[in-house]
Amino acid sequence: HAEELSAHLSQCKVRLRITSNSSQQTMPGRLTILDQNGSLFTTGNQSDATTAVRPGVVYTSTGDVVVSLPEGRYTITAGRGVEWGIKTQVVNLKADRFETYSFPIFKEVDTAGYISCDTHVHTFTHSRHGDATLDERLVTIAGEGIQLPIATDHNLHINYEARANELGLRQHFTPVVGNEVTTKVGHFNAFPVAPHSPLPDHTLSDWSKIVESIKKSTGAQIIILNHARDVHSGITPFGPARHNSLTGQSVLNGPFVANAMELINSGATQTDVMQLYRDWFGFLNRGIHVTGIGCSDSHDVARHFIGQGRTYIRGDSSDPAAINVTNAVTSLLAGRANVSYGLFTTMTVNQIFEVGDLATGSENYTAHIKVQGPSWVEAKTVTLFVNGYEYETFAITDSKKPGVKWMGSIPLGNLPHDCFIVAIAQGDGVRSLHWPTAKPYQPDSPHFTPYTLGSTGAIQIDIDGDGTFQAASHYAAKLTKSSTAIDNLISQLNGYDRAVAIHAANILHQSGTNLSSDDVQLPLKKANAQVRHGFSLFQRSLIR
After folding, report:
1. Separation between Cα atoms, residue 171 and residue 173, nearest integer Å
2. Measured on CA atoms in the order 279, 281, 284, 290, is the torsion positive or negative?
3. Which of 445, 446, 385, 451 is CA-nearest to residue 420?
4. Tell me: the pLDDT tens digits for 163-178?
5. Measured distance CA(369)–CA(351) in Å, rounded
6. How many CA atoms lie within 13 A of 46 on its CB side?
7. pTM above the 0.90 mark?
C-alpha cells in the first residue's frame, strides 16, 4: 500500500521557484498547496537537506524545488513570512508534462533598522514533542525570514551553528544558544547562553532562586517569563491567586525578577489578546522595567510555525549572517523592541525618540505612529495607550493596502505628569491556510474573534522636565507620604491619572486602610472620574 500511495502521489513533477520580484533571484520560502476543495494536499515529497515537508506545505531553503503530485488542479501560494507579499497560482498538472512555475513576491513591509527575532523555538529532536527535526527547523527559520532565532529546547543548551553551516543555511540567520528553563512554577527563556555552560536547576520552586541559578550557570542576560496566563503543572503564573495584574504586584510568585515577558505567543494565543498587555502595563506603572516579547513557541513545521509571532529588535539587520548578538541583547534589555503578529507598528516621539527611550527637553510632545503589514493581513484599528489606558483610537480604512496601512501624528497635550506610551494596531485573523492564525491554546470563553496585532515597545515621556522618569507608583508613594489626611490625598489625586490613583489605593490598602469606609468613600464622591475609577478598579482587583 505504501508503494501504491507513493506512486500515486508522484504521478507528476512540477518545478516551483520562489523569487524576489526586485532581483528575480530565488530565496527561501514556504509553498502552500491546496486541492480543488481548498484543502491542504499531501505531496510525494519527503523532507531533506533543503526542504521541510508536511501535508500541503513545502518549505524550501533554496527557493527552487521539484514537487511530486498526482494529476489534477491545485492552488499554490508562495510566501516568506509577514514582511513579504504572497503569490498565488492555479496549476493544472498532467503526468506527461514537466513544467516550471515562478512565484515572484514583493518585500511589502519595511523593517530596515530592525532585526527579526523569534525568542521561543523548539525542535522535536531535542524537546521530544512537536514534529520539527533540527534540520527541518533550520529550513523553516530561513523560510520565514527569522534573522535571530533563539534555540530554546526544554532544559537544554542547543547550538544550531554547526548544522546550519553544514546545510548551507548560515547565510540566512545568526543562531543564538538559549534554554527554556521549564520549572513547576513557570517557564523561563534565557539567552544568550555561554557554550558548554552547566544547566540551571529546573527543580527549584522560588522565582528568585530560579533566576539566580540561570544567571550563575549560563551568564544569560535576557530572562523571559513565558506564556504567563497558561496553566502548566497546575500553576498559572499570572493567575489572580498569584499575581495582581493591575498593580504589577506578585502575591505568591515573589518579586518579578525576569526582565522580559511574552505578550504574544502565536503557538499559545489568548482568548483576550489584551490580557498579557494589561499585565505588562501593570509592571511599567509599578516602575519595573520589563521588555515585551513576541514569539512563536513553535515545535512544528506547519501547525504552529516559526516566526508567526516575533520580536523586532532595533539594530543592524543588513547582514542576517552577521547580527551583532551583544548589541541586539543590549537593545532588547533596554526595551528597544516591537512585537509583531501579522502587523508591524512603529512609533517615535517628536520624530526623535524611539521605543526604549526617555523623551525629554520639550514642553510639547507628539507621537508619530506607523502601521505596516502585507496585503494579506487586514488592519482595523490603532490605539495609543498612555500609562496603560486608551488615549485615542483610530480606524484603519485602507486595511488591505500593502506596506504602510496607516500613519498619523497624535499631540500629547494636557498630560499631567510623566508617563509611558505604547501603540497597538489590531486586525482580523488570517484564515488563509498559507498563514492561519490560531485559536486560543487554553480558551477561557466559547466566544473568540481571531486577530492579528502589531505593538510598539514603550516610550517614556518626561513631562515634569526633571530629566528622569517617574512611574505611577512613584507619584503615588510621594503623595501618600506627604498627605496624612485621606481627604487631602484624594483631593491631590485629582491632578493625576488613573494609574496613580490605583497605586495610591494600593498603598492605603497595604497600610490597613479600609477602602470601603466612609473616610475613603465620602471624599471619593467629590473626586474626578479618573480617581474614582482607579480606586474602583483596585478594589475589584482584590476579589479573587
Report:
1. 6
2. positive
3. 385
4. 999 999 999 999 999 9
5. 10
6. 1
7. yes
In tens, the pLDDT along 357-412 reads 999 998 899 999 999 999 999 999 999 999 999 999 999 998 999 999 999 999 99
DSSP letters along 383-440, please?
EEEETTEEEEEEE-S-TT-SEEEEEEEEE-TT--S-EEEEEEEEEEPP-STTSPPPPP
Q: Which of 182, 294, 187, 279 is nearest to 230 (CA)?
A: 187
C-alpha cell at position 350:
517628536
Where b means 16+ CB within 10 Å and e means fewer, 363-385 reads eebebbbbbbbbebbbbbebbbb
Look at residue 1 in the predicted model and tell me its pLDDT.
Answer: 66
Residue for cell digits 494579506? 376
pLDDT in tens, 458-496: 999 999 999 999 999 999 999 999 988 999 999 999 999
* Inter-residue contact 310 to 264 (CB < 8 Å): no
CA–CA distance, 340 with 293 (Å, rounded to integer)? 9
Burial degree of 281 (CB within 10 A; 0-12, 13-18, 19+): buried
352 C-beta neighbours (distance < 10 Å), count: 12
Residue found by looking up cell 509599578 in the block: 286
- Residue 402's pLDDT is 97
SS3 275: helix
Amino acid type, 537: L
DSSP string, 502-525: HHHHHHHHHTT--TTSHHHHHHHH
Is residue 284 within 8 A of residue 114, CB to CB? The reply is no
Torsion of CA 154, 159, 164, 170, to 10 degrees: 110
Which residues, in sequence order, are CB contacts of 536 under 8 Å at separation 6+? none
Give residue-wise pLDDT tens across range 438-460.
999 999 888 999 999 999 999 99
